[in-house]
Amino acid sequence: MTDLTSVLPGFPTHQYVRLLPKLEKNLVTTTDLLTLDCAEVAKRAQLPLLDVKRLCNAVLEALQQNLGVTENEAGNEAQGSSMLKKSGKDIVNYWNTLSTLHDDLDRALGGGIPTGYITEVTGESGAGKTQFLLTLLLSAQLPAPHGLSSSVLYISTESALPTTRLSQLLRTHPVLTSANPKPTLDKVISIVTPDLESQDHILRFQVPVAIERHGVRLIILDSVAANYRAEFERPGGGTGANMAQRSSELVKLGQLLRTIAREHNIAVVVANQVADRFSNNSGTGSGSGGGSSPVLNRTTQSSPLARRSAGTLPSSSIPAPHIPSTNALPPPPSTLFAGTPDPMSLDHQQRWFTGWGDDPHPTPASLQNLKTPSLGLIWTTQIAFRIALIKKPVYGPGLAADEENERGELVLRKWRRWMKVVFAPHVAPSGPGVQGAVEFEIKGMGIAAVRKKGDVDEEDGILP
């Protein structure tokens, strides 16, 4: 059992001093204790069966506690089952949502941001994530149906809370100015977590105290990827053990946030960053290869030795072989399905849970603007609701005084933004591309949906 102390450093090995030497002599590892039958381990190490069973159960229990996966105690078993068994009336009464303070956006979100779940708001820089979260900080203080009449907790991992922007929203937003009682900055609790250690301490110890003491019903973590990038994406840190540790930390964070959201019936909203995703055009079925094989289309190259040998021999001494044309050769089997990607590959599946790349007929511009939410598939399995904020540039003719416009070049005129539901437990996804997404704009009074207009081309984003 040479690996027991490394797998479980706090395991009480002194209670099993008589068993461990024989297990180590017969090369029995911790994995064997968890996967093999106790009778087989006892026979292999020549130990009493009951002692081996007791050791296996102790190792399993210690490993579950270390990972945070523990079974309900006898006193909490009834409580755990009651949380899973609820009538339709109980679910309706238990259901609460936070409003974005705009009817079109709330309608697309199925009423708003639900309590009891982890909601992720992802998008690139400048897409409107911070504006979206600041609106929720103020709407949560409103009474139903807009909010929860509660205090809010803002956990920042990058910069301090933008109180200047919050004050502007309080002065200019029509719903907030006419509310009674009006939201205030006094009910916004702000904490800064510069690293993972302080973040874990705050979530485990300070957040439960704040919930009980201040009646917090909304927790915002902005952003969830910043500390993990600083900790695990250092130069030279992309090893397998490093990535496995990051995955374990993400699972613990997801379990902790789900427990907080479920037990206290609060809304947990996290902001996430995105990274560029490079897509192969042939994988989407819209490539220009026409099903031809790259092996058949490439030119034949010969080595310098072969060219020198061919130059010393007379041309009449070697008969020219008959080489069939590439049109006469049948295409290899692998190229017959070049336009159909592997349906089980991550590159194919992630189009439906990232928010980008699910358009069945993508344009060249959209293929160059593919994004992927940070922290990968492991973090995606920890959340219940993903909202993607997508922005696209709109180009048009420049001003008359523009020097660049003399050559007829298009210049960036503005940005268009969409809010897209990628997946959710209570509302259907928005659909492929931005066809079913809600376009919004950022104003001084906050975020607001944009009415449909016909003066902008949806595909190319070019103003007349």
TrEMBL record:
Localisation per UniProt entry: Nucleus
GO cellular component terms, A-Z: nucleus
Residue stretches making up the RecA family profile domain: 94-274
GO BP term (any one): DNA strand invasion
Bias (Low complexity) ranges: 314-325
InterPro entries: AAA+_ATPase, P-loop_NTPase, Rad51_C, RecA_ATP-bd, XRCC3-like_C
Keywords: ATP-binding, DNA damage, DNA repair, Nucleotide-binding, Nucleus
Annotated segments matching region Disordered: 277-360
Main location: nucleus
TM stretches of this protein: none
Pfam families: Rad51 (PF08423)
GO MF annotations in UniProt: ATP binding; ATP-dependent DNA damage sensor activity; DNA strand exchange activity; double-stranded DNA binding; single-stranded DNA binding
Biased composition (Polar residues): 294-304
Protein name, as recorded: DNA repair protein rhp57
Species whose genome carries this gene: Lachnellula arida
Upper taxonomic lineage: Eukaryota, Fungi, Dikarya, Ascomycota, Pezizomycotina
Gene: rhp57
